[in-house]
């Protein structure tokens, strides 16, 4: 078997580093390359600037098999390059507006896709779809899916999510009610939700994550919503207050970035999925003791391993579509810092 050459672009960032650590531990035979804008210390550190395709030649020279994108690529230069050069590609970073553009581009060029193009920007590495599959195989039975997120400001947080909120907090986004798109805004429409793992009752507010698009437009679930709460009830209330009084609108982008950009030294992250069929309500609760970066990275590693297993035919996928739900459930359930409950 040939050694697989994997390039992690944005590999010096928060999630990129964790992906490399977990990959190395589980697959010592993989040959790992790190792409970033700065010149690194080893031959496996490649200078790649996603805004400058001239820097992509090293991808071909180093016979890369799979590109893992962990950095913002607004013009989809890496996606275009991967399709042109028949390279496997997985992207874990795109917020909903960017994801829909990239997906449409890939679909429009489907005839020339001769590799595996995988979009994995759903919440925590795109595993929500797999967990829904695990508890309800038949998507046609599902009337409604709600995702509730517990987000700790003490957690290690990457720049991209903070910047996304800073840039988009004043803009409306789409949720779906009976397949009708409805415009809503972040931090409004609060709902009381009782979180597992000792967190208890919290006010949870609107949040835009790509699962809204994926679950409605791809999986055809008629009603989909996502709500989040911070670990601090004070901060959660403050965000709702700022939005309802339009205070975000008068803040500069830099001020909003400072507001959302606080990053701690690490804390747990929790999410809950409530799945409603016409006769049942099922609930999946997941806790990552080591926080968001660890969970996102571990999910991504599972996708990478699947993509390199040679069982996946060329095409365009969302990450939950490349696995059996059972595989993902077992992998998550057996991981030392992840706890899963299904009720």
UniProtKB/TrEMBL annotation:
UniProt source species: Flavobacterium frigoritolerans
Domain of life: Bacteria
Transmembrane segments: none
Protein name: Saccharopine dehydrogenase
